[in-house]
Amino acid sequence: MKRSCDVVYLILSHSNPEQVVRLAGRLLRGNDSARAVVHHDYSRSHLDASGLKAGVDVLSHTQGIAWGSFELVLATLRSLAWVEENLDYKWLVFISGQDYPLRPLPEIQEFLLSSDSDGFIAKPRRVEYRFRDEGGGRDYWSARYFYRYYQLPPLRRSLSPAATKLVRNVEVFIRSRQPLVFLWAMPDGKGTLVGLRSIRHPFRNGFECHCGSQWFTLSRTAIQTMLRVADERPDLLEYYRRTFIPDESFFNSLLLSRRELRIRFDSLRYVRMAPPWYAHPETLTADDLEPLTTSGAHFARKFDTRVDARILDELDRRLDGQLVDR
Questions:
Q1: What is the dihedral of CA 290, 295, 300, 304, to 10 degrees?
Q2: Is 249 helix (H, G, I), strand (E, B) or coil?
Q3: Which of 122, 98, 84 is nearest to 211 (CA)?
Q4: What are the structural domains of the chain?
Q5: What is the Cα–Cα distance from 246 to 235, expressed in whole angstroms?
Q6: pLDDT tens readout for residues 163-213
Q7: Which of 71, 83, 181, 303 is at a distance of 20 to 30 A from 319, taking alpha carbons?
Q8: Strands 181-185 and 192-197: what pairing?
Q9: pLDDT beneath 50: ranges in the chain
């Protein structure tokens, strides 16, 4: 028999397991109508499930997940399918292990249960099949999703600094001068991806390519719709398998292709992206308390207790006080 709840909090995590345990406990504190489900990458760190409260499930299908890879899409789909099979729920909030609530969970759930929308996501950008963007530069968004990528060996580790710089310059030259091949250097010396421009792609007949945040808040209707379309369209999965950072496009594109879903462009999250490339969120600290608490967001990311635990202590103090007031 499926276990009933109003809201499921699906947590995708890989590091700082003590903080993940703290987050799961916070989500269920004074909150009997919710459950938490954790998908933890045990290849990166060990999560001791014995420290979790009742009402928290840790999925057994976890496996190593490489940044920017298709494994993120598969992990999310498997987790959603597990929730659908085992829980009787109304809403699902998908967060990372470095998120934390800014508002009392009963208040968040009241908001969702009274909403006439099917989901909340950050407004994504529409990605076009083109070589250059509006400013005449290389369209890197198109390069993510209109190329088929293959891994090259990490040759740079054995090269001299001068040779490494030369290889880098060749990569930049290839990317900027022609549309057929794209080279993408992976971070942390994990090699280079070579992309070949796709001749055929699935973005036609009303199905458009969109790219944005992979974190979402969705009704059960929206979750069931996504799972059904993913099951009916194995070609989409096969195509995205060879794209770059597919989780930031797959779910957004799928959701926005379903005209019957009422999706609002509001992530309900506070995130401050870090310069210079704004590829990752900044770590929030106690100095950020005022903008966090006045943002009106439901959750914020990212926190790291190894950098500053005081901010979570203060958020807990305020949330506990608000629970008492209720």
A1: -10
A2: helix
A3: 122
A4: 3-125+207-325 (3.90.550), 147-197 (no CATH)
A5: 14
A6: 777 877 777 788 888 899 998 877 766 778 999 999 999 999 989 999 999
A7: 83
A8: antiparallel
A9: none
